[in-house]
Specification:
- This protein has about 240 residues and is of the alpha/beta class.
- It has one domain: Rossmann fold (3-Layer(aba) Sandwich), CATH 3.40.50.
- It has a 6-stranded parallel β-sheet, with helices on both faces.
- Strand 1, helix 1 and strand 2 form a beta-alpha-beta unit.
- Helix 2 crosses helix 3.
- The longest helix is centred in the middle third of the chain and has 20 residues.
- About 40% of the residues are buried.
Length: about 240
């Protein structure tokens, strides 16, 4: 089956686009996975990272607007979900072709974002403790002072991005929103379910075993199966 839908995937805080490379082989062939790299990491390491939410989402929306085909969707995990939401809102303001769907994972709804949480996590000890609690960082990172320092530098910038986010009610997006959560994640069911108010179309909420990084742990296969199902539903609308 030829490629019919492009899926732009935005990374979580402290990560790079490499977190989605596996999906190129694991998702159906009709989905073209395009991992989105943020400035200051991966292939964009030479660029200055952006620590402001509006500045970063404006940059990403401009880039996606130039490259996006007619049929595409946006996916983001954790901070990536918040960025995907901001990009979608900006594309709407630019009167660009909207994505077929917005897919958000492991992220409290915009109206439930807590900037004070990120303000408290500033010291190296606090950042390391947060990484341990989230459970998505490979042991190799903690065992390498150089890798750990790089990860903390990126994470510190990304948390500034999250802290700078300020919610103001927007006109509901005219596209489906599909939300995914981990049953053992600290994010409450209410904080996820309130994503419904950001869409005037279909809203779904799927739960999986595991914590904040359920999509990379024991639930990965099932999650990708459900993700493909939601993409097909949205693509067929």
């Amino acid at each position: 089956m030829s490629v019919q839908l492009t899926l732009y995937c935005l990374p979580c805080a402290g990560a790079s686009a490499i977190m989605y490379l596996r999906w190129k082989k694991l998702l159906p062939s009709w989905v073209e996975v395009v991992p989105v790299e943020l400035p200051g990491r991966g292939m964009r390491l030479s660029e200055n990272p952006k620590d402001n939410y509006l500045a970063l989402t404006e940059l990403l929306s401009d880039e996606i607007a130039l490259a996006a085909p007619k049929r595409y969707a946006l996916f983001g995990h954790s901070m990536g979900a918040l960025l995907a939401y901001g990009v979608t809102q900006k594309l709407q303001r630019l009167h660009k072709e909207p994505p077929a769907a917005l897919l958000v994972s492991g992220c409290a709804a915009p109206a439930r974002q807590d900037s004070e949480y990120y303000h408290k996590i500033r010291t190296e000890a606090a950042l390391i403790d947060d990484l341990n609690q989230q459970g998505g960082t490979p042991k190799e990172v903690f065992n390498s002072p150089e890798l750990l320092a790089m990860t903390l530098d990126i994470l510190r910038v990304d948390y500034q991005v999250c802290e700078s986010f300020q919610y103001t009610p927007q006109t509901p997006l005219p596209i489906p929103i599909h939300c995914f959560g981990g049953k053992a994640d600290a994010i409450s069911a209410e904080s996820l379910s309130i994503w419904w108010q950001e869409s005037s179309r279909t809203f779904t909420l799927d739960w999986f075993d595991g914590g904040h990084f359920f999509l990379r742990q024991e639930s990965e296969a099932l999650f990708l199966q459900v993700l493909a199902k939601r993409l097909l539903e949205s693509h067929s609308r």
